[in-house]
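Protein 1 of 2
SEQ + STRUCT:
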Amino acid sequence: VDYLPGLSSDEKKARLARISYREYLVDVIKADPGVVPFFQAMTHGEWGVGIDAIGALEVWPFGFPGFQGLGLKPGPAPHMGFTAAGYAAGGSDTFHFPDGNASIARLLVRNLIPAALPGHTAEDAVTARADYAQLDRPGASTRIRLSSIVLRAANLGPAAAPDGVAVTYIRGGELTTVRGAGCVLACWNTMIPYLCPDLPDRQKAALRYLVKTPLVYTSVALKNWHAFSNLGIADVYSPGCYHSSFRLNPTVDIGRYHSPRSPDMPILVHMTRTPCQPGLDGRAQNRAGRADLLATSFETFERNIRNQLDRTLRPGGFNPAQDITAITVNRWPHGYAYEYNPLFDPDWDEHDQPHVVGRQPFGRITIANSDSGAGAYTDSAIDQAHRAVGEVLAIEA
């Protein structure tokens, strides 16, 4: 059904960009409001908020119901967010290492300090054992210092003509200051005004605008997965539960690592919770979710985890007291980089977007992180790192 008759494809996209998917279902399609709770959490995994705070155009590339008869032409449109525009343009290949993005960090470390991680390929990096003693050797051309929290970064001399930078960090209770020709601040961008208080006020305000999306990734270790096998399921969507979805860990065979195939074998269950608060704008929901994570005890998580898995899997023979061997709750209060939301954010000129203003070099200090690309993806983080390092080298030259 064409629910927006008489409009061109571009006009329809412009209309869909300005209303939430909830509004589209209830006010445009005239669907029964009873469908809203079912769809409410379907956007949690990509955006960290529900359909009340995501534009209808954002979910169109994902095949959500209601768009089949509109005759929308393929491809991104003005005012689409980073994720939606990417999927509308064809998406990208997805690969999951058994340990997530940790393998990417290991591969980067191996390239910088080959002695730290044996092997030569992505396949053998997964099971290689790191030699941490190689990371911070005196005299090495590259040194990686762990457990060192940076407190301050400052230009030596005026920002217009600095002689270098000084970085102060704390490690083991001791303050240390190191000096260099330049530095890249590749941390959560909202923290940078505190680390570098000499920044211009406009740049500080831009950096603080980027309110990261909080998430919870919970891992539950099971003795076996007979209950999943008996029920014939691997992935569960549960919009009314504490975790809005859970699934068996993806099957990945790489190098000497092999995923469990038999239901008799132990396995991890991945659960996702997005602590958003419907009714607020996107950035306010992010802040509220972060406060929720800070205030929630592990006991609350454990009680809800056991209850949810029991209610879902007990018909398959699941017993939480016997089958659960461990629970790890990964609270990610500063998770996804903030992506602009057409429902709430202004239509800035490209050069006035907060992430562009915020990442400008300041003397010999440059800025990276996926925040400075306004996209919560590994490729965005790598692109921003490449840009920031290039800026440091250009300043030195």
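Protein 2 of 2
SEQ + STRUCT:
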Amino acid sequence: MLRQTFLTLSNSRELQDVALHNAAARKFALRFVAGETLEQAVQAISALNAKGITATFDHLGENITTPREAKAAANSYLGVLDAIEARRLNSNVSLKLTQMGLDVDEQLCYDNVLRICRRAQEMDNFVRLDMESSAYTDRTLDMFRRLWQEGLHNVGVVLQAYLYRTEADVQEMNRLGARVRLCKGAYNEPPEVAFPKKADVDANYAKLVRLLLTKGAYPGIATHDERLIEYTKRFARKKGIPTSRFEFQMLYGVRRTEQEKLVQEGYNMRVYVPYGKEWYPYFMRRLAERPANVMFIMGNLFKG
């Protein structure tokens, strides 16, 4: 119930306006967000790289409403790729299609993403299409297919274990040889499209891990769940799958000690590093995942 409440609040423009001007909310959000500027994110990723951890940049923003905003967002990602190249960072990029203009004009969105993927290809880098709510699943995968058919095989997708359809999507991506980031899912979905019980989501996640490790192309196992991390390790050892064939992924600011431990154990570890001024929706989804943080932030949200 609490999770659903915070997922609903993540779409509230009124609360977003309050939070963006609240010092306590901003300070707490910076636990999960690397900063509001590209330079702050660069510094965060440099620190991760020094620990043997790779990264993916995410310039926060979604559901833009004008072509001008979409083009500006795409240009920001070209700047991110230039920064990766100039600073020799071990990082790729992740982006949301609604930030690239998907709800404004599909061709505009495609053109924006195409520019980013081509620039990344020139730099031998990689672009991940983030997955949003189930309303965008087909549209996101259709966009991915267009890019893939264009010969841009430096692009991958995110698939969400809580959706019933995801096993079929994983099998398609495996056949193509496309890279998948597997996560549980962080949106408020109806029971008609998603498993409502956590135990069922976890069981499906484990099943999809098996498919990706045995038949996938360098999958990203994106979870903070210790049981699923240990399950992945055991399954890989049992099947003789080397650690070079996959990576674990976690969010910036979450389970930092575990991130470093996995690197020390010889696993590849990538951290999703968001930055930017549009941090509110992302932050609220993180609160939904971590109820223990809720009382602190709500107690301070309307102070100072």
